[in-house]
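Quick one: structure tokens for this chain, please?
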Amino acid sequence: MRYQSSVLHQILKHIPWNSFDRLVEKHQADKRVRRLSTKSQLIALIYGQLSGAQSLREIEAGLKSHANQLYHAGSAAIRRSTLSDANGKRPAAVFVGLFEEMSKSVHRGLRRELPDLTYLIDATPLTLNAKSADWTARFSKKVYGGKLHMIYDPAADVPIYAALSAANVNDITVAKKMPIEPGATYVFDLGYYDYSWWKTLDDAGCRIVTRLKKNTPLAILQEVPVAKTGSILCDRIGFLPRKLSYTNRNPMADAVREVQVKTDQGKILRIFSNDLDAKAEEIAALYKYRWQIELLFRWIKQVLKIRHFLGTSQNAVLIQLIVALIAYLALRLAQRTQTTILSPLAFARLVRVNLTHKRRLDRLLRPIEHFVADTQQMVLKWT
């Protein structure tokens, strides 16, 4: 009888284990480790993400009940106390490095057919408790907060950068440390309102699409005609204020563009761009596209369950968040191996309910009785 690996094992095949081993060696993550290797730690956390486990105890019990599948996946059952210690002490750089390598690989594969680079930048809040008080922002006696910052390519559906901070850290502070892709389009909101950073993007040949504040004046140089009907109210080319203060000059000295748009709710948005040639409708559409990253945040929080954290230290929370993104990329890669299930959400849900079953990924939609019948036929064929 032909051996069929479990759904979990098939998902894990999309992890570049050779690269992971190099990262473990580089950061000496397994130095003086006796019980739980970093590889077993990663597999346990991916299992927790894909199964929807909301505690270390659930991960421990689930892995213990599926010891055979773990053996074939290269791992073993664990103790929650050991996993907790590993999450708090193992270098998060190992998992960050793996995420970066996987995102680049997935991105290159999808980008062969998608020439235009458009990146969305945003951050989403994370709710923690007083045990994380040493690195988070305090909102009340029991509620503390952090933020997950991300760069996301919506066309390829791939997050390409992630960082963790306290909730009171300004978004632009983190953005200034983000990698910049020369010539790409960057779309972001008012949280990244910084002329010097805009100038950095502009000098790299990047197109910027964001919003202007209501009180930011624009010295009008040219009015571009727009249709009398539609959501575009006006299209202007002009100059931002020359000085930010008495001694501080604005680095964005070249002509820029403002496209005013009226939303379906009646709100008027002042959309800003350094692209003077594209159609106003294209600029407006790019800014509207920004909501795709909000959908990604919602997907990750609901499907991969990062609302409940398995640790309280910054290292443990960062590892959990990065492993969630690794699991997301592995799911995306696994989904591309079949054409039966096209919806990413449906595929993730079917993986969850079949995680430890020995079923082909392209047959997850088939009723279980069909799966049993197929197995019985295979047994008869090979006996």
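The first strand starts at residue 118 and ends at 128.
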